[in-house]
Amino acid sequence: MASKRDNVALEELLCMKGGKGEASYANNSQAQALHARSMLHLVEETLDKVQLNSPEVPFQVAELGCSSGSNTLFIMDVIIKHMIKRYKSSGLEPPEFFAFFSDLPSNDFNTLFQLLPTMGTSYERSIENYLAANNGHRNYFAAGVPGSFYKRLLPSRSIDVFHSAFSLHWLSQVPESVVDQRSEAYNKGRVFIHGAGKSTANAYKHQFQADLAKFLKARSQEMKKGGSMFLVCLGRTSVDPAHQGGAGILFGTHYQDAWDDLVQEGLITSEKRDSFNIPVYAPSLEEFKDVVEAEGSFAINNLTVFKGGSPLVVDRHDDPDEIGRALANACRSVSGVLADAHIGDQLSEELFLRVERRGRSHAKDLIEKLQFFHIVASLSFV
Ligand SMILES: C[S@@+](CC[C@H](N)C(=O)[O-])C[C@H]1O[C@@H](n2cnc3c(N)ncnc32)[C@H](O)[C@@H]1O
């Protein structure tokens, strides 16, 4: 039977789990929140590179891959406060600020907009008003922008700062050869490239690099001269693309085994499993850098691999039940929508129960070994 996903482009389907339920992204993004906070100094360094324009011109920030949790609101606040400080220390009146929150059309923008603080009552352009407005309010105008960041999203020369966190490792699509049974790159027996053959891993790598080049090209048209961009996505330290580091452990071990359980229990066919692939790729620093240099629109201020920490945020590191649940929720909040579309809600429920069970019995190992690395890039448009 053809699944919903066979017929629908990834960009029309992909989203993190919306709402505010147990497996929602809003309730399972504490790890990203912690990782983001650990690199705030790098965000601020990027903001220090941005050229300040006339206070008469609105200062525009776009957050790409904003999702439906509060992390995006936290970072927007940091960005705008920092820019107000910069205007102030340059003896300039701050301009009006406009924030664009962008994600794929299936993103739960409603939940995000409900989390958005109300606009401060007074936003006339004075420092006093801006700082006062911060008291539980936002001091920027806000809008949602639906669309893929691998395409144009915003008008030419409109954006001063782009920020994108934990999103660019999502590919625009699973490479076609990876799901083509006649291809050497067919990812037989796997739902992710961790541990896959060379051809499969290379197909993913080429997809990532082609996607990143498209992302940079679109941003180079949208960014104002003198603007800056801060990007962070999953990365890896190994040179071998089939060793996906933390992403490999997350999607290539217990999650993989849970899919195998469904096959062995006769709940799905092996072909059904093999036609599901997680469209995520954690690049190496070199792979990322090669694309930025070849595309050529942006100067690199800083490009590093940053140790992120675990995606499992638990109260008790010795509680296998909590760890199993955290693993299932972490997988489900980011890939649940794709699994639901591929095998239906009921089997998807079975899948994540098995992820939880397997996570519970490997809890100690998971807490020790499941660690993310991130590629962090600070780029300027020159
Ligand atoms: C893990 S969430 C990150 C959310 C948020 N930035 C944070 O720090 O918590 C990744 C987001 O990237 C979005 N995304 C993936 N591919 C995308 C694309 N091609 N265009 C726009 N957004 C995309 C997903 O829909 C998802 O909301």
Topology:
Elements: H1 4-7, H2 10-13, H3 30-38, H4 40-47, E1 59-64, H5 71-89, E2 97-103, H6 109-115, H7 127-133, E3 141-146, E4 159-165, H8 198-222, E5 223-235, H9 245-252, H10 254-264, H11 270-274, H12 285-295, E6 298-309, H13 320-343, H14 345-361, H15 363-369, E7 372-381
Parallel strand pairs: 1-2, 1-4, 2-3, 4-5
Antiparallel strand pairs: 5-7, 6-7
Helix pairs in contact: 4-5, 8-12, 9-10, 10-14, 13-14, 13-15
The protein binds S-adenosylmethionine.
Description:
This protein has 382 residues and is α/β, with parallel strands linked by helices. It contains 15 helices and 7 strands. The chain has a 7-stranded mixed beta sheet with strand order 3-2-1-4-5-7-6, sandwiched between helices. Strand 1, helix 5 and strand 2 (97-103) form a beta-alpha-beta unit. Helix 13 runs antiparallel to helix 14 and helix 13 crosses helix 15. The radius of gyration is 21 Å and the shape is globular. The relative contact order is 0.15. Mean pLDDT is 89; it is low at 1-5 and 125-133. Bound molecules: S-adenosylmethionine (SAM). S-adenosylmethionine (SAM) is lined by residues 11, 14-16, 29, 32, 36, 65-67, 69, 71-72, 103-104, 107, 148-150, 165-167, 170, 172, 334.
